[in-house]
């Protein structure tokens, strides 16, 4: 499922990067010279494309085995990516031009503290891109009762009550001193599969920045 989701996230990310820094939309390396932090990097599924876009990428994950697998894969692919294991608040990381945090917030117990930690690591002119499932009847039926039941997502991956609505996320960002920018849904249909949409009811992806 993550492999199917990744191209959708990357399309949003590329557009967001181009809009935020007003860069050359034709270049293959829009992140050249910029530092990137991928929070909840897993095995590097998003971190590697970000490195190929020119970013100096750091990936962190709470699970040491994930960071180890990601580092081995990056080395085998000839990519210079720094991977670290640990919790965001416990690592000495510095600040970054771009922070990505995809499908992580719903697994975090203290969401206000987590968003604040993201904000602390964002440079004044930086860009945060975050995705998370919406807490709706549709997401419960499709992502929890449906996808987990048929094995598309491992059982126990999601707890629907921990999903965050767009309004709740706006409040979390605001309380952390950030302002939300772009927002799009990640929808699913039998004909299109996973795709960007104005429908936020299943999953959604947003940008945020420090106010000017």
From TrEMBL:
It is an enzyme of class 2 (transferase). The keyword Secreted does not apply. Residues 1-211 form the Polyketide synthase-like methyltransferase domain. InterPro entries: MeTfrase_dom, SAM-dependent_MTases_sf, UbiG_MeTrfase. Keywords: Methyltransferase, S-adenosyl-L-methionine, Transferase, Ubiquinone biosynthesis. It comes from the Bacteria. CDD domains: AdoMet_MTases (cd02440). The keyword Methyltransferase applies. Its EC number is 2.1.1.222, 2.1.1.64. One of its GO terms (biological process) is methylation. It holds the Pfam family Methyltransf_23. SMART domains: PKS_MT. One of its GO terms (molecular function) is 2-polyprenyl-6-hydroxyphenol methylase activity. This is 2-polyprenyl-6-hydroxyphenol methylase. It comes from Alteripontixanthobacter maritimus.
């Amino acid at each position: 499922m993550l492999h199917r989701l990744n191209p959708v996230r990357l399309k949003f990310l590329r557009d967001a990067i181009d809009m935020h820094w007003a860069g050359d939309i034709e270049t293959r390396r829009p992140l050249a010279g910029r530092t990137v932090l991928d929070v909840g990097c897993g095995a590097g599924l998003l971190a590697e494309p970000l490195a190929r876009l020119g970013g100096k990428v750091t990936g962190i994950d709470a699970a040491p085995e994930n960071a180890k697998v990601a580092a081995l894969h990056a080395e085998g692919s000839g990519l210079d990516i720094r991977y670290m294991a640990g919790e965001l608040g416990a690592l000495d990381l510095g600040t970054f031009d771009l922070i990505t945090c995809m499908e992580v917030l719903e697994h975090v117990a203290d969401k206000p503290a987590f968003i604040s930690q993201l904000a602390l690591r964002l440079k004044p002119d930086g860009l945060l891109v975050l995705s998370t499932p919406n807490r709706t009847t549709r997401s419960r039926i499709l992502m929890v009762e449906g996808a987990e039941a048929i094995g598309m997502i491992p059982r126990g991956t999601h707890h629907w009550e921990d999903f965050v609505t767009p309004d709740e996320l706006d409040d979390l960002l605001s309380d952390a001193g950030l302002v939300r920018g772009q927002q799009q849904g990640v929808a699913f249909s039998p004909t299109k599969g996973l795709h960007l949409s104005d429908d936020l009811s299943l999953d959604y992806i947003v940008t945020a920045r420090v106010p000017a």
